[in-house]
Amino acid sequence: MKSIRWVTGVAGAMLVFAAATSQADVVLNNADVTFNGLASNGYLHVPGDELGNQDPDKGITPFVNNNTIYTNSETSTTFDIGAEWEFLVRNDGKNNTEDYEGLTFTLSAETGQKAGLWELTVSDNDPNTLPSIPFTMDFLVHMHGGNSNAFYFFDDRKIEAENGADGTSTFEIKFKNNGGNNPGLSNFDIFVRDVRSVEDGNGGGGSSEVPEPASILLLGAGLLGLGLIRRRKLI
């Protein structure tokens, strides 16, 4: 039986995330976070006093579904990303696993939320039932550090592995405060919606090959990475 494993890689981007409390001190743009070399679709900065409740279900989920106007720095315009976001998983120094639409997501950190390697592993529990890998999904990434929150919206991003040679998809976030240092990250949250399998030409539910986890790496200490490198092996 063949199995396929996706492991992530890292690429570069820069985010100036000021430690000061004033929103005017924070400079963000779409390209602060990239996925597969493409910038996010939009961003939202929220000072800490406007989002004091960091509980993902009682605080952040209602906030993201009621504050849907984001900025597109490429066009200098604002737009509505829509609601219906669901909290998926958080890492605040502890590993957490959640099931969503038949997929299992595990977010872990190598040395806690302030340093080391973060990994979100996506496992397809039943490759013969939709949704299955490959799939597309809307992602909303939330970071809380110091007295600031940053949200980045990714529309219809595909989780897949290409046949033949290794393929890589990445996003990275890098934090700097006014002193040029990496501020501590209190929590990293992922919200999702609209998961859809990608038709592979064989009629939907996938082949008899059982995929191993698709992995998303998130690098702490001000460096977060998301990527996918397919590795193929025989069992």
From TrEMBL:
Record-linked InterPro entries: Ice-binding_C, VPLPA-CTERM
Alphabetized Pfam families for the sequence: PEP-CTERM (PF07589)
Signal peptide: 1-24
Domain Ice-binding protein C-terminal: 210-232
UniProt keyword terms in alphabetical order: Signal
Coiled-coil segments: none
Recorded superkingdom: Bacteria
NCBIfam families: PEP_CTERM, VPLPA-CTERM
Name by which UniProt lists this protein: Ice-binding protein C-terminal domain-containing protein
Native source organism of the sequence: Nitrosomonas stercoris
